[in-house]
Amino acid sequence: MSSRLRALRRGAQILFLAVFVLLFAFTAYPLKLPVAPDLFLRADPLLALSTMLSLRQIALPLLWFALPVVVVSLLLGRVFCGWVCPMGTCIDLCERVFRIRGRRPSLAPAWRRVKFYLLVALLLTMALPAVYHTDYELGLPRTVGLSAVYLVDPIALLTRTFALAGLPAAHWLAGVANDSATAVAYSDFASRHPTLLRALAPVQLGFGMVSRPPYLRAQFRFATLSFAIFAGIVALGSLARRFWCRNLCPLGALLGFLGKASPLRLAVSEKCTRCMRCVNECKVGAISEDPHHYSGPECIGCYSCIAVCPERAISLTTGRADSGRADELRLDRRRVLQAAGIGLAAAILPKLEASAKRSQATEGVLKASGAKLIRPPGALPEDEFVTACVRCGECMKVCPTNALQPALVEGGLEALGTPILVPRIGACAQSCNACGQVCPTDALRPFTVEEKAHLYLGTAVIHRSLCIAWAADRQCLVCDEGCPFDAISQRSVDGLGRPVVNDRVCVGCGFCESICPVEPDAAIRVTSAGDRRHWSRPRQQVWREQAEQEDQGGLPYPGL
Question: How many structural domains are present in the chain?
């Protein structure tokens, strides 16, 4: 029975990791998945809690997915960490492949409470009213917290690593393979099995197994940093097995706290000879020096102890009297206060720069804190967006033009890693709405392709000193002919046709900047000016319709 239980647990780990990888691979434009591509992110109770507390609202798309994990944790304990979590499985595989074995397990008792202190700090940042602003549709004051969960949540961290580091690496390897003799073998296989390859096309596209044009090859900022963070987590296994899971993971701390209510327990009978094999085998150091006692919040339900016990002395039970499970957390009050102080600083410091800019913003809302802070379509108002976004990288991964990139300094510290549109890399494709479909927290609200005509991201501005038509008096129709929303037209100035932007029609898709022939900087550039995310969609649509009516009436464009 014990060996079957361990085999079942390992099979579950591989199965859930395979599902995670397949969902990631199939998250490619166009989306054709029957299930949510961000299933694991939506099922993360910590992300759900963070989103709802920070935004002060119920997020049903997250609640319904996360609730089963909460119920299972209440009934069975922290089994998500031992059976389901793809981060834990990746750590187990890496430790086995690279033969990483904890050399100093004595560090574990001193460190294992860190994850609970970290959870306290995160909860404080969620609950603290970091931003005060007015809801413009209702005219009521509203507070928004600050979520820093994206830094340490295991599901968001692993997804970000796959998207920003794994995908570009896969594309690079695919390019090398296509330039070598393997391309011949691939072509031969493709000629013999065309139906199979068509069925696997989304997976091939997602992982770069087929050749792509250069402008479709994923290249992201933060790729090296994302990989370095994951590599560091794996390397910590040299101190103790699953060092991240046992000591640092805040999701594990939350599930461990919920698991205190579980009636399922481990019991050690009198047949125990104190061989200590269970203590040495425990992945997270949950068993104390006395094999009869273990920590309930630490146990991840892997049941390796049952499998390795030579006397079959360990069994599962629901009786409290027969079990040595201890559920006390025994957190140090001073450390809790220190964690609260860290959470307070994390909530305040990123907002200092934003608050200065918000005080100067029209209508009292921080719409954008930098000219290059151009958000994807469907994005929430800026203060809510940086709170809801978990920096998972799914929207960047699914973008067909690679135009979405992690923000660096464009929006300050609070916007670090959030998606921004970089038009010089690629435009927001007119027929694509994939980013709104894969966002797990609705920081990017779903939208239709038709709505993109009135979702204002920014405005294009022509730099006349660089423009071929304005500066060199030569005809150039590239931006005019390429604009998908007819926001650019040729107007006669000094007897010559010059491109002019109608800033009430331009939505800031960036197509004009991406195709402008002027190098290295385009002569027409999109900025966040004109961003109207704080308006409702019907209001933006009315604005667009009025602009079209004025344009048809022959009214002059601004600036002429």
Answer: 2
As a whole number of angstroms, the distance between CA 161 and CA 154 comes to 10
Q: What is the pLDDT of residue 333?
A: 86
Terminal CA-CA length for the chain? 82
One domain for residues 156 and 24:
yes
Q: Is residue 434 part of a domain?
A: yes
What is the domain range of residue 472?
378-552
pLDDT at 315 over 80: yes
Question: pLDDT tens across 127-182, in order?
Answer: 876 555 545 554 555 667 677 899 899 999 999 999 999 988 887 776 665 555 55
- In Å, what is the CA distance from 166 to each residue of 21, 158, 159, 219, 506? 11, 10, 9, 10, 35
Distance from C-alpha of 464 to C-alpha of 446, rounded to nearest angstrom: 37
Question: What's the pLDDT band for 189 if we cut at 50, 70, 90?
Answer: low
CA contacts within 13 A on the Cβ side of 474: 9
Q: Among positive and negative, which fits the CA dihedral 502, 507, 511, 513?
A: positive
Q: What is the pLDDT of residues 352-368, one digit of tens each?
A: 665 555 544 444 444 45
Report DSSP letters for 395-443, one per residue: HHHH-TTS-EEE-SSTT-GGGTT-EEE-TTT----TT--HHHHH-TTSS
DSSP H or E run through 65: helix 60-76
What are the two backbone dihedrals, phi and then psi, of residue 495, each rounded to the nearest 5 degrees?
80, 0
For residue 531, tell me if it sits in a domain. Answer: yes
pLDDT, tens only, 411-456: 888 888 999 999 999 999 999 999 999 999 999 999 999 999 999 9
13, 245 contact by CB (below 8 A): no
* Helical packing angle, 86-97 and 154-161, nearest 10°: 60
